[in-house]
Each structure stands twice: as structure tokens, then as C-alpha cells.
Specification:
- This protein has 464 residues and is α+β, with helices and mostly antiparallel strands.
- It folds into four domains: 4-212, Rossmann fold (3-Layer(aba) Sandwich), CATH 3.40.50; 213-297, Carboxypeptidase-like, regulatory domain (Immunoglobulin-like, Sandwich), CATH 2.60.40; 299-380, Immunoglobulin-like; 383-463, Sandwich (Immunoglobulin-like).
- 16% of the residues lie in helices and 42% in strands.
- The strands form nine sheets. A four-stranded mixed sheet has the order 1-7-8-9, sandwiched between helices. Strands 10, 11, 14 and 17 form a four-stranded mixed sheet that branches.
- α3 packs parallel to α4 and α4 runs parallel beside α5 (176-184).
- 38% of the residues are buried.
- This is VWA domain-containing protein.
- InterPro entries: VWF_A, vWFA_dom_sf.
- It comes from Algoriphagus oliviformis.
- Residues 27-210 form the VWFA domain.
């Protein structure tokens, strides 16, 4: 049997009785799951201990004037699906009373999720209150109830509430009904894996109350088809309001943006290889909901580098607009792909083994789209020059220096080692200087001019 901690946090009284101010906050009603699985362990503590600590902390952080109440179920009878008790009434509830009651509860029985929610909603029905309902559960319904149907029916009836649901250590295949209920209750489903996560989502859930306008913008963040947790901040480009943020918790998140045009900045909260993305010009309206998908999917750049038409080995760097190298790789004589975050990049290409003044190139303003492949190709040209030094018909060791004739820049060099030296050069005219070594080092150097043509080989032998 799983345990469910139900928290119903309502932050605004919509009291309709005479003499009550319209701005008074709604009461907070906690529905606490005290079923047997709360004895389960997480990080060396029982889930009961974690829930009591986190809920007590959340209660203590509320404004002093906030009205609060407490409901518990599963704490008196082991097999009773109707074991639900209203422990602290909102008309007289205090922070200390809530904390004291939480610590006195001992987990025991079933998890009547739907029945407990139905009883609390019935209180809203008879009292004409509006409330925010936050359900924190470490398991699923154990009494054959359908909380999604309960919530949907109540909404159709016109009962004014908002329901958020927190899955406390739930598996992905256990959340469908809870997500359904949160959606029907015009709220948000959250995941919490531990005490820190539970506290964080409670803080957010308690801030998204029924008194706030209904969400008119929804956002959903994914990377490679998998939803991720992201913080989305909206910046008003017209009225310049203070930024408004929402966290996705690996699900669709709703927030209210007053009608205007916004830029959205989405920062992933998981996956350090993912950078922030920006979506510009998102228009919000009061009369309809706008949805924005936020794709953190990597885009690929595919490099094909050739020399005289044949695949060639090159070093590649993909550099973002801030000057940071997003990817660096070697082609190894074949087309090669690299995945980076979507954006605009500069791609640098350095040919290997070729020497000359045209062995490096840059391609600016390369747009790489999410989940797409951007093909790039670059062609280098070269020819070969074979240089040999001989004495009396026999090759000797010599130093060879190759200089571009027009610029005077030294582009290559090496030794012949008694067998000659071949240079792979960009097409052009070069000045080649040969200086004998060893026993022939007293021979005078010689300088010749050679022209290297694309795809052609030239051979020069100098006799000393």
C-alpha cells in the first residue's frame, strides 16, 4: 500500500458574508495522508518524518493572518476507506496547532485519495469558500476512487478551487490519474523526490493560489523528446513589468501574463549540457490560453571537408556568439557531425597535412536549429612539390625552406634525409631554398622558384 499526503492549501477567503473584506486571504486546509506506507524510508528518514518537517516549515512560513486547517485520513483504522477526520478547523487554526497535530499522527491505514478530496470539496460547497488544493502523494489511490472524476465533477458544478498535486517519490507510470486531477483542478502537477524537492515545490504551489488569475500561457520544455525541468521567465517588452517566472517540473506549466508581448527565457534545471534558450514575441491574452513549446533539443552541424574533391582530414571548431567553443572535433577523412544547442555559430576549419596560405577558413553566421542537421562543406586545393638534393648523382641530406613568393611568408620546411622531400602545398608560386648538411654543408645554398598547380605534381632536383 502506498501513502498519500494530501495538502489543500487555499490562500484566499472569498467570503461573501456581510462585513468581510474582499481582500481577506482564503483559508489553508491541509489534508494529511497518514496511511501505512508513510513509514517507508527516504534518505535515512521515514516519509512521515520528512512530511511533518516539510509541512510544518511550510506552515510556519505563511503570513500570521493566514487561516489554516488540517484534515487527516488513514490514521485510526487500518482497513477503513472512510477513515477521514477534520482535525483543525480553519476558523480557529494556528500554526502551532497544525504542527502539533501533524506530529501526533501515526500512519496506519488506507489511502482514500478521492474520498478525502470529495469531503474537503464538500466543505467548500457548503461554506461557499474558494480554495487552493495541493495534493502530495507517494503512491496511488488504494480505495477504488477516481480523484480526477471527483475534481472534474466539482468544477462542472461551479465550485471555485484550484488543485495542485505533488508526486512524492512516484514512478512515472503512477502519475496519470494525478496529472489528470491537477489539470481538471486548473492547477499544476509537480514531482518531488526528497525533502528538498518537496519543500521547493510546496513553496511554488502555495504561491499559485486560487486568488491569482488563471494561467493564460502554458509552457512545456523538452530535450530530445523527453520533458525536462526548466525555469521559464517572461520579460514584458511593452509595459516593462517585473519579470514573471514559472517552473515546469517536467510537465506543462501554466502562468498568468497580463496581456502584452513577452520574451521568454528558459533555463534548464537539469542537464548541464543544455544552455538557456530565448523565445521572442510571445503575445498573451486574457480571453485565451497561449501555448509555447520550449525545445532544448540539440541541433547538428555536418561538416564535409575535401581536398581536390576527396574527403580530407580537418580540425573543426563550432564557436557560439559569446566566443565559447561549443564543439571541437576532427573529421578523419570523412564527413562528421557534432551536436550543439540551437543558435548562431561561427565554424572554423583547419586542414591538416596541407601547407600554404589557404589551409584555414571560417564560416560565419551558421544557424543551427533544434532537432535539425545543418550541412556545411568546404573544399581545399593542393598540389605536390618534390624537392631533392644530389651530389654526383646521389641524394644527400639538406634543409628545405618553402616561402610564398608574393607575401614572403615561410609556409613549409623540412629535411630531405638522403631521399628527397615531398610537400603538399596550396596552388601558388614559391621560392624554395635548399641548404646541404653533413659533409656537404660547405656547399653553397641554392634557391629556385616553383609553381604548384591544383592536383598536379612537380619534381625538382638540385645538384651541388
Amino acid at each position: 500500500m502506498r501513502t498519500i499526503v494530501l495538502l489543500i492549501l487555499a490562500f484566499s477567503w472569498a467570503l461573501q458574508s456581510e462585513g468581510t473584506e474582499k481582500d481577506d486571504p482564503s483559508p489553508i486546509i491541509f489534508i494529511y495522508d497518514a496511511s501505512g506506507s508513510m513509514w517507508g524510508q527516504l534518505q535515512g528518514k521515514s516519509k512521515m518524518e520528512i512530511a511533518v518537517e516539510v509541512l510544518s516549515s511550510s506552515v510556519n512560513a505563511l503570513p500570521d493572518a493566514q487561516k489554516i486547517g488540517l484534515v487527516a485520513y488513514g490514521h485510526r483504522n487500518k482497513s477503513d476507506c472512510k477513515d477521514v477526520e477534520f482535525l483543525v478547523d480553519v476558523s480557529e487554526g494556528t500554526k502551532s496547532a497544525i504542527s502539533s497535530s501533524l506530529r501526533s499522527i501515526k500512519p496506519l491505514g488506507m489511502t482514500p485519495l478521492a474520498y478525502s478530496a470529495a469531503l474537503v470539496i464538500d466543505k467548500l460547497r457548503t461554506s461557499k469558500m474558494k480554495a487552493t488544493i495541493i495534493l502530495v502523494t507517494d503512491g496511488i489511490e488504494s480505495c477504488d476512487g477516481d480523484i480526477c472524476q471527483v475534481v472534474a465533477d466539482a468544477k462542472k458544478e461551479g465550485i471555485d478551487f484550484r488543485m495542485h498535486i505533488i508526486g512524492f517519490g512516484l514512478k512515472a507510470n503512477e502519475t496519470e490519474q494525478l496529472r489528470c486531477a491537477a489539470g481538471a483542478g486548473e492547477g499544476q502537477y509537480y514531482d518531488a523526490a526528497d525533502a528538498g524537492g518537496l519543500g521547493a515545490v510546496l513553496n511554488e504551489a502555495t504561491s499559485e493560489t486560487v486568488d491569482k488569475p488563471k494561467g493564460n500561457v502554458s509552457v512545456y520544455a523538452v530535450k530530445n523528446g523527453v520533458p525536462i525541468d526548466a525555469l521559464v521567465t517572461a520579460y514584458d517588452q511593452v509595459a516593462k513589468r517585473e519579470p514573471i517566472s514559472v517552473r515546469t517540473y517536467r510537465d506543462t506549466a501554466f502562468f498568468y501574463l497580463p496581456p502584452s508581448k513577452y520574451n521568454l527565457e528558459a533555463k534548464p534545471l537539469e542537464g548541464s549540457d543544455v544552455n538557456m534558450i530565448t523565445v521572442s514575441g510571445v503575445q498573451s491574452f486574457d480571453e485565451k490560453i497561449i501555448h509555447q513549446d520550449l525545445g532544448f533539443d540539440g541541433g547538428k552541424v555536418r561538416l564535409t571537408t575535401t581536398n581536390n574533391g576527396a574527403n580530407w582530414d580537418c580540425m573543426i571548431k563550432v564557436i557560439d556568439q559569446a566566443g565559447k567553443v561549443a564543439a571541437s572535433f576532427r573529421t578523419y577523412d570523412k564527413p562528421k557531425e557534432a551536436e550543439v544547442n540551437p543558435g548562431t555559430y561561427k565554424v572554423t576549419i583547419q586542414a591538416l597535412r596541407i601547407e600554404g596560405l589557404s589551409t584555414y577558413s571560417e564560416i560565419d553566421s551558421v544557424e543551427i536549429s533544434a532537432a535539425g542537421v545543418t550541412p556545411l562543406a568546404y573544399e581545399f586545393d593542393s598540389g605536390t612539390a618534390f624537392i631533392d638534393a644530389k651530389v654526383n648523382g646521389t641524394s644527400v641530406d639538406a634543409v628545405v625552406t618553402v616561402t610564398d613568393s608574393k607575401s614572403g611568408k615561410n609556409v613549409a620546411g623540412g629535411r630531405t634525409y638522403d631521399r628527397g622531400k615531398e610537400f603538399l602545398l596550396n596552388p601558388g608560386i614559391y621560392s624554395v631554398k635548399i641548404v646541404p648538411l653533413g659533409e656537404f654543408k660547405d656547399r653553397s645554398p641554392q634557391t629556385i622558384t616553383v609553381e604548384v598547380k591544383k592536383g598536379e605534381a612537380i619534381s625538382k632536383t638540385l645538384n651541388f
